[in-house]
Amino acid sequence: MEIVTNIFSFALIILFFGGSIFIHELGHFLAAKKRGLEILRFSVGFGPKLFSWERDGIEYRLSMIPFGGYVALPQLADMGQLEGGDKEAKPLPSLSFTDKFIVSIMGPVFNVIFAFVLSMALWGIGKDEVSQERTTQVGYMSTEIELMDGSIVPGPAYEAGLQVGDKILTIDGEPVTNWMEIQYIVLTGTGRTDDNKPLTIFSVARTTPAGTETIDIPIHPIINTEEQIRQIQIWPAAKILVGELQKDRPGEKAGILVGDRIHALDGNLVYTINYMHKYLNDHQKSAINVTIEREGALQDFPITPIIHTFEDGSTQALIGVGIEYEKKKVHYTPIQELSKMMTMMQQTITALFHKDSNVNIRNMSGPIGIMHSSYLSFQLGFYQFLWLITFININLAILNLMPFPVLDGGHILFAFLTKLRGKPLPVRFIELSNGIFVVFLISVMLYVTYRDIFRLI
Q1: What is the rounded distance in angstroms from the CA atom of residue 342 to the CA atom of residue 361?
Q2: Which of the 8 DSSP states describes residue 76?
Q3: Do 255 and 302 touch, CB atoms closer than 8 A?
Q4: Could you report the per-residue pLDDT of 160-197, keeping only the tens digit for each?
Q5: Which helix (H) or strand (E) holds 217?
């Protein structure tokens, strides 16, 4: 059954991932046919063909290098052998600016349309969202972090003075509404101090005996792990529920029930499982007053933990309850979903080209990484898989609109330059710029593929 499930997973991944590329090229193809352009071939993939067929003078092929695809349109951009074919020799009528613009932009437009269709499905299915995904409240933070060289440093958020229970309002001036936004803004941050240390400014609401006050907290993220990305080591607050009870263990004996919410331990509010485990370990030899919330009312249960010894000799204080997170079915509209994805892409691209960020090509993924992420998301559930494919289509649309040669944005840029000049750009200039960027693009793909393999190993 596991083999069958894996085969089915990979088949779906290939179908949706390949389908996303096909949809993009279909947009170019249909626009080119509608505008009466000469079409040599429609290829999924680059380089030498694996197999092909011809219809109405157009060659349809599957090519060897699965890094994308193309529609060979010599009137728009004669890529010749870069696309795995021969240069078209016969003279062809030149295109108007409108023809070039429409044909170039319809690939990304089709990806956005496909993403919208997928997001409609996401809207209908709905997401089982756990409480910590919806919150901006800090539930736990590392007091110390071990770096890759083995040294121990204070946790950045802890050292800066962030506190458990703080509600994060903005980061670097950007309002946040959920935990993913918090993670992504920190990761793609570009703030730095005068001495070039990474810097991010948190604005938080903190409840004190005098009331709620707003505090700005400068935090210096650490750069750790092989990915060399910014980290501040905080976790979201969650609503922790009792999912099961172990028979004849302290929790059951004390009267705790399945469905109860763990509210506090000895009066200390519990926001995360991390904190709960640490507190039980630190107080394992004494009775702990466990406060639970049941049907809107708080009740106290004095419980003495038991000590469990694992095979490796480590111990953990337990009260015999299985924990789960509170979930809620949410339905984000296509506009909400796509807007969030476009914002994430804007933050990524800004960070990628910003000299003060810690995001660079090393952190990108190629086809292998995307396929692996797709497989992992499928294991989490069809909703997560469909979300990732939707996000990939938004990626394809936005990246292809960047004004670089070979990409759709490059074709649009050349069309604008031609219109401004009042005459065609030099053929040598177009061939040279396309050739240089193809070499650059292949180099980047080889590098990110190496990084993908490195991560898998």
Answers
A1: 19
A2: T
A3: no
A4: 999 999 999 999 999 999 999 999 999 999 999 999 99
A5: strand 211-219
